[in-house]
Amino acid sequence: MRDSRQQVTVRVPASTANLGPGFDCLGLALGLYNEIIVRRGRGIAVTIEGEGKGRLREDEENLVVKAARYLSEYTGRHLPGLWVHQVNEIPVGSGLGSSAAAVVGGLLAADALLDTNLSQERLLAMATALEGHADNAAAAIYGGLVLANGYKGKLIVEKLPLPPIRLVVVLPTFELPTSQARAALPEQVPLQDALFNAGRAALLVWALTQGKQEQLRMAMQDRLHQPYRLRLIPGMEEAFAVAEAAGAAVALSGAGPSLVAIAPGNPEPLVAALTATFQRAGLESRHWILPTVNRGATVKCDSG
């Protein structure tokens, strides 16, 4: 290990996945960040400020710590104790990739501290093993719009060029565990629904990369997962109808409960309308207007 790498700071963007029809394969990096400072120490010490304070684990079960140790064991490099400080902007359990950000942050920090210089492909494979799916982690590592698919046991990732886009994100105060959102999905879907999604996913990739706002509203429609998940969140079906009536492209962010939308003009009226919709359903909400970001996680190495 190089003496200069006594401490590292990793900055990881939020991500939204699925984007409607791109179920478990499309991810998009957003301009909201978690900053993770990691240095070698004795034992495990974790502190958290911002999102997740008092909620996230501050011991060996912390995701940053688990990811760092995973890389250490995978590479056979000894990583003794760790001191971790997280400054989180990404809300926990929101569908905005907070767990992927923690895993990616831990892997990149360990990679820098141990001077293992793993490729992005190897780091993503490790993140996917820890996360269970690649879409959020791929967006966090690569930035921009990513398409992740498996082929003959290998993970294939393509980063696609993307013009600047701003997304409205609305997060109602509602707990929706990913396990519950997964359990709501049917084991089989009708052929016409599968064909519908195949066409919409192709159109979505084209519309996003070409900046075709007028096609996005149709392109982000989905029949594989959203119809089953919207009903789990009070006010969400109505919120989708409000967004579509305003001419916006709208989707769940991951499995929810966040909603993401691309408005055709000024996003502020849409934010107000969506907030009011959730209020009528008995839920308060938070919102962000976020740019997409073409740069993924960054690592800064500091001397001890």
Q: How would you sum up this structure in a few lines?
A:
This protein is of the alpha+beta class and 304 residues long.
How would you describe this structure to a colleague?
With 304 residues, the chain is an alpha+beta fold. The protein folds into 2 domains: 7-161 and 293-302, 2-Layer Sandwich (Ribosomal Protein S5, domain 2), CATH 3.30.230.10; 166-291, Alpha-Beta Plaits (2-Layer Sandwich). It has 10 helices and 11 strands. Strands 1, 2, 3, 4, 5, 6 and 11 form a 7-stranded mixed β-sheet that branches. Strands 8-9-7-10 form a 4-stranded antiparallel β-sheet. Helix 1 (63-75) links the parallel strand 3 and strand 4 (81-88). Helix 9 runs antiparallel to helix 10 (268-280). The chain is globular. The relative contact order is 0.20. The mean pLDDT is 94.
